[in-house]
Amino acid sequence: MTVYLAWSPAPVPADLPGPWVELRRLTDDLVLVDSPDGLSRVYHELKWALPEGTALFVAPLPERPKLKGLPAGTTTWLRDRIAGPEQ
Questions:
Q1: Within a 10 A sphere around the Cβ of 78, how many other Cβ atoms?
Q2: Quick one: which of 4, 13, 16, 81 has the most CB atoms within 10 Å?
Q3: What digits encode the pLDDT tens for the residues 34-55?
Q4: Cβ atoms of residues 31 and 6 within 8 Å
Q5: Dist. CA 72–CA 24, nearest whole Å
């Protein structure tokens, strides 16, 4: 399973069906995607769900990022899916 970070200026619906186990909305334009599929598949499914010509950024998260001020439970959600940084 890989966690991807996706950003688009258009809102990404939290209940969007796709090749993912879970899509977790952080803000209207920022989501975490937990998917067994590769980057290309996740990118294209999100791209096809957004209005034509909308900007989109999708990247895998190789380790748990530092974060602050995001919705409650986000750190735990990430901790359950991604290892922390090497010490």
A1: 20
A2: 4
A3: 999 999 999 999 999 999 999 9
A4: yes
A5: 12
Which of 35, 33, 1 lies closest to 14 in space, CA to CA?
Answer: 33
In a domain, 34, yes or no: yes
Query: Which residues are registered as beta bridge partners of 34?
Result: 3, 22
Per-residue pLDDT for 13 more than 90?
no
Q: Which residue has the tokens 């990247």?
A: 59
The pTM of this model reads 0.91
Q: Specify the DSSP element, H or E, that contains 4.
A: strand 2-7
- Residue 84, classified by CB atoms within 10 Å of its CB into exposed (0-12), middle (13-18) or buried (19+), is exposed
Kindly state whether residue 14 falls inside one of the protein's structural domains: yes
Residue for token digits 């909305």? Answer: 25
